[in-house]
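Review session, final week

We close the course with one last complete record, chosen because it touches almost every idea we covered. It is DUF1697 domain-containing protein, a protein from Salinimicrobium profundisediminis with 180 residues. Go through it on your own first, then we will talk.
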Amino acid sequence: MNKKIAILRGINVGGKRKILMADLKALCEKLELEQIETYIQSGNLLFNSQLKNTKLEDLLEDAIKEKFGFEVPVIVRDSEELQTLNRKNPFYDKNTDINQLHLTFLKEKPSKENLEKTQTFNYDPDKFKIAEKEVFIFCEGKYHQTKLNNNFFEKKLKVGATTRNWKTILKLHELSKKQI
């Protein structure tokens, strides 16, 4: 079985699009995903499945819409992909305050044209680095104050996106290494 991580966008934020993790887990069980585990209320799932990531994204998005009545974008990565992120993050080292680090997951690899245009933006002291289907972000202040948010990357790159703070990434990395 392949261990997968599903990142859901925009649930349980400000009392909107509320999904209890127990209900999400039950839905995943009905979809015959295996060894399902949730992490915090913002919509992080770990599970085993042989299905391809894009198939899982569609399956989860359709099931959530049918069960809860609203659309929730879902991005799925393999545990191996998640485990390489520590090495790939250009802003992460032992002296970095991880509260300043964030990772935006992209639904797909952006076009070369959109990638080149987006890389011309500069919002110092905040910084970003796009690597394939992820955007590594360093925020001098709070994430909610930066212009380098989901909406920015979705508009500029023309792909779906969702962001997690680095503490969540480290925890998902740890959980994805467990034998579940």
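Two points worth writing down before the exam:
Residues 28 and 36 are 7 Å apart (CA to CA).
Helices lie at 21-30, 53-68, 79-83, 85-88, 112-118, 150-157, 166-177.
Good luck, everyone.
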